[in-house]
Design a protein that fits this description.
The chain contains 19 helices and 6 strands. By secondary structure, it is mostly helical. A hairpin with a 2-residue loop joins strand 1 and strand 2. Helix 6 runs antiparallel to helix 7 and helix 14 packs antiparallel against helix 15.
Length: 436
């Protein structure tokens, strides 16, 4: 985690204090469940809760113990025993380290997912507001970066909204998939621990029991979780790149808000750069990079090994913290995005009506020409506009082969911009329903 790209609420999930507190809760809930089914004394379970709840876990002390034991869970349990006293012998009854580690990791991932879902909601709210604001703001659509046909800026934002609605659903599904608990003991057979204890801990921690844990929770669940983060990051980059292109000097249809006192370049005082969108692009690359090691963690030896452990200690915090930061940065970009409708219209008119070429093509085919002949007829006039700056409509009207099939007055009607936006309401109804 890099502080520059971190937000406190997400980083707190991964701090040692949080991790040790979750470990304690898992152990204490397991002790309570053991007491309820008569495995350990109820008084001992109560003592574990009382002493552990009041304890402030000393990270330096735990590190000191681990330096000797070379085992993080044993170090924690030893330190916990220093707080609890003799009743500590009833802690971790029949459990193995993975029961604590895996259950804790999933609690952390669930909490992180809740924050990420809230982040997506913020972005969705911003996209919706700006989409309706520019629902009918005409702009040129581009394919391959080249002028194609007119659209609206609202539609551009609507397709981003629809994509992040899907991303939200994916995040909810990933949260559900990773929200499992394993308290099943060595090799996951429950030989030394009653399955009822697992069920109790799962309920208390907001999880569900893992059907077959093999001592560890299967890592396909985590692979899906981190892959989902990667997909979300890709959608963020798509939107960030759109903004970066629209801010190019030659285009300048929209740009990031440039705050008072902000500087764009150490050398050139005139610069206003899309630095936030570029930052989102870079952070998206990092989030995607964490998906591959998560997938490689799926293939572990037999019932367990710990080759996944070092990976998850890195990618768990880094991927969630980075995505949390980037989502909020992107939401802020959209909320304050400066839009220039007049520049959109200027660019739309730049190619003198060429964006109507398909409509003329279709009209010629409906008038009896083959598609090949109609295409050649439209293209020869379009290239005059493209290469020589001629007015496309004027060239079409001057072409006797065109006017033999389409009256000049009808050609005028084919250059009506409203033709291209007649289904905006249909698109918005599909994306947003009846809401505004």
């Amino acid at each position: 985690m890099i502080p520059r790209y971190s937000r406190a609420e997400m980083t707190s999930i991964w701090e040692p204090e949080t991790r040790f507190r979750i470990w304690f809760e898992i152990e204490a809930h397991a002790a309570t469940a053991s007491a309820e089914i008569g495995i350990i004394p109820k008084a001992a379970a109560k003592k574990i809760w009382d002493k552990g709840s009041a304890a402030t876990f000393d990270i330096a002390r735990i590190d000191e113990i681990e330096a000797v034991t070379k085992h993080d869970v044993i170090a924690f349990l030893t330190h916990l025993a220093e707080h609890v006293g003799p009743e500590a012998r009833f802690i971790h009854q029949g459990m193995t380290s993975s029961d604590v580690l895996d259950t804790c990791l999933n609690v952390q991932l669930v909490r992180a997912a809740d924050l990420l879902i809230a982040d997506i909601d913020r972005l969705l709210a911003a996209l919706k507001i700006r989409a309706f604001e520019h629902k009918n703001t005409l702009t040129i659509g581009r394919s391959h970066g080249i002028h194609a046909e007119p659209t609206t800026f609202g539609i551009k934002l609507a397709y981003a909204y629809a994509e992040f609605q899907r991303n939200r659903e994916r995040m909810v599904a990933a949260r559900k998939e990773v929200a499992t608990c394993a308290i099943s003991g060595a090799v996951g057979t429950y030989a030394n621990i009653d399955p009822r204890i697992e069920a109790y801990v799962a309920e208390k921690m907001g999880l569900v029991p893992e059907p077959v844990s093999t001592q560890i929770i299967p890592r396909d669940r985590h692979a899906m979780y981190f892959a989902t983060l990667g997909v979300i990051a890709s959608g963020m980059e798509r939107l960030a790149i759109e903004i970066r292109h629209l801010q190019r000097t030659e285009v300048l249809e929209a740009e990031e808000y440039f705050s008072p006192g902000q500087k764009g370049s150490s050398a050139m005082p005139h610069k206003r750069n899309p630095v936030l969108s570029e930052n989102v692009t870079g952070l998206a690359r990092m989030v995607r990079a964490y998906a591959l090691p998560a997938m490689e963690n799926v293939a572990l030896w037999h019932e367990r090994d710990i080759s996944h452990s070092s990976v998850e200690r890195m990618i768990g915090p880094d991927a969630t913290v980075t995505l949390d930061f980037a989502l909020n940065r992107l939401a802020g970009i959209i909320e304050k995005l400066v839009v220039y409708p007049q520049n959109m219209r200027r660019n739309l008119d730049k190619l003198a009506g060429l964006h109507n070429s398909q409509r003329v093509l279709l009209a010629l085919t409906q008038a009896g020409l083959s598609r090949e002949d109609a295409y050649a007829l439209v293209q020869r006039n379009a290239m005059k506009a493209w290469e020589q700056g001629k007015d496309f409509l004027a060239e079409l009207k001057a072409d006797k082969d065109v006017t033999a099939k389409i009256r000049p007055a009808d050609l005028d009607g084919m250059f009506d911009l409203a033709y291209h936006t007649k289904h905006v309401d249909t698109i918005f109804n599909r994306v947003f329903g009846g809401s505004k």
